[in-house]
Specification:
The complex is a heterodimer of chains A (about 290) and B (about 180). Chain A is mostly beta strands and about 290 residues long. Helices cover about 5% and strands about 45% of the residues of chain A. Chain A has two helices and 19 strands. Chain A is globular and about 70 Å long. Chain B contains four helices and seven strands, in the order αααββββαβββ. The termini of chain B are far apart. Helix content of chain B is about 25%, strand content about 25%. With about 180 residues, chain B is an alpha+beta fold. Classes of the chains: A mainly beta (about 290), B alpha+beta (about 180). The interface between A and B is large, with 60 and 71 residues.
């Protein structure tokens, strides 16, 4: 009934254009606006290599080694379905047969949920693919981003730099990838964009203002580091489907920790749901 | 020690290959088997705990076993599918009150009652097309109920689902809901 899909509660406003692109997220309480120049799924082509540990090592289980630093978008267009109820407002964005995301804003929530679904990754073209979900903003992050180490101390990462030795850039993408066990963020003096993950993933900030997180991969070659198998999941006919969630927080740097620490504890210690089938009416059951 | 099998499996899968999924395929299957067997064993502990936390006045009534639905992330919970009544109990392991949005995949429409008999306001929305198309999903649920649960610190709430009528739900949306498709 409207040209644009807008999700809004008392804390956040999330705007999409009619083509399903995430345009901006606004923290209404703090009046913080974060425009998105792009958001969606991309894939890197896995380097094929020659089954050695030397110069031509393949992208495999232990090694992420794309053959180009420019990931391809998984599709040139996407469809968006917007559903609004009293409890939740959702934008379901379908990129193609094997990638989609559902962006959910719950009532009273100050964190935006992105539930991503990827797979089975098609391999008919015999090209290994490493799928990322990328969030491109205008935040001037000055080559810096922050990731946690095993859910504990969050460390500052600087692109193409190591704090304890002189770093020579060889792999512009994988050389800047770090584990993301629970969270990653970028910031500038007045704005911080934080993503909480529901599982350990890998990711980076390859460009200022950008966060990318690898969510699925399917490769054809072993990287000669001992696994002796490609990450192909050939035991399943079409490969695996993976579904996970990212939680986005738009806040000031000074108050972001209040939200991502509380949010990550609620993710880790989430309620345990159990069901039962009592053959009793409510009156008797209660 | 009913949770030993799960705690042992959890110990095994702290290995970096298990965390990142870079193990051999046969090892991945073994990890999955260990975790599944551990979870199955640990459900007994959950039931024993709720036997103590949910005392009954009438001891002649049998205990109603609790079970997990581990595929609710793809909107699938086969044991409750088509049932006229079932309960959902949510345990809050944190030391403070929390609010939590719950999604329950359903094939019928239900009235949800809390432990004091109050009707819980819930939204019935369709399960997304990408979810329905996930290979291996066996559920016939086309809709899901979403509601907000308030859970006490280190405590639980039980929600009782009672079918509104016996007609199967179609993909019908409530009049109050707004849908935009582009």
């Amino acid at each position: 009934k409207d040209d644009k899909c807008i999700l809004q509660n008392e804390y956040l406003r999330v705007e999409f254009d009619c083509q399903g692109n995430l345009n901006k997220i606004i923290n209404l309480k703090k009046n913080i606006v974060v425009p998105f120049t792009a958001q969606g799924f991309y894939w890197y082509t896995s380097f094929a290599g020659n089954n050695s540990r030397a110069e031509f090592q393949a992208s495999g289980a232990y090694i992420f080694r794309p053959n180009s630093s420019d990931p391809q978008p998984v599709s040139t267009k996407r469809s968006i379905t917007c559903i609004k109820t009293a409890t939740v407002q959702s934008a379901i964005i379908v990129f193609n047969d094997w990638t989609s995301q559902e962006i959910n804003l719950y009532d009273n929530a100050n964190i935006l949920e992105v539930e991503w679904t990827v797979g089975p990754i098609p391999i008919d073209d015999n090209i290994g693919k490493e799928i990322i979900l990328r969030y491109d903003t205008d935040i001037k992050s000055q080559s810096k981003f922050y990731t946690d180490a095993n859910g504990r101390e969050v460390l500052e990462r600087i692109r193409d730099y190591r704090p304890t030795w002189n770093y020579s850039k060889v792999e512009s993408v994988s050389g800047n990838y770090y584990p993301i066990n629970s969270r990653i963020w970028i910031k500038e003096p007045n704005r911080q964009f934080t993503i909480l993950t529901d599982r350990s993933e890998g990711g980076s900030s390859i460009y200022d203002g950008s966060i990318e997180i690898m969510v699925h991969r399917r490769t054809f070659y072993d990287d000669a580091l001992g696994v002796d198998e490609p990450l192909n999941e050939t035991a399943f006919d079409d490969g695996l489907v993976v579904r996970g969630r990212h939680f986005l927080i738009i806040e000031s740097p000074a108050s972001s920790a209040l939200y991502h620490r509380v949010g990550s504890q609620q993710l880790y210690m989430h309620p345990l749901a159990t069901y039962a089938l009592p053959q009793l009416s409510y009156v008797n059951y209660s | 020690n009913s949770i030993f099998r799960l705690s042992e499996a959890m110990g095994v899968v702290q290995h970096h290959d298990a965390v990142s999924g870079t193990e051999k395929q046969e090892v991945a299957f073994d990890y999955a088997m260990r975790l599944a067997e551990g979870i199955d064993a640990a459900v007994d502990v959950i039931n024993k705990a709720y036997d103590k936390l949910l005392p009954k006045d009438n001891q002649s009534l049998p205990n109603v076993p609790q079970f997990l639905c581990q595929l609710t992330n793809i909107s699938e919970c086969l044991p409750i599918e088509g049932q006229d009544r079932f309960t959902l109990t949510l345990w809050n392991p944190t030391g403070h009150t929390i609010s939590h949005h719950v999604r329950v995949p359903v094939t019928k429409n239900y009235t949800i009652l809390d432990s004091t008999g109050h009707v819980i306001l819930a939204d019935l929305i369709p399960i997304s097309e990408p979810t329905k198309k996930i290979p291996g999903r066996k559920s016939f649920a086309m809709n899901q109920l979403i509601f907000k649960a308030i859970l006490p610190a280190l405590g639980f709430n039980t929600y009782y689902f009672e079918v509104k009528n016996n007609t199967l739900l179609t993909n019908k949306i409530n009049d109050e809901q707004e849908i935009i498709i582009t």
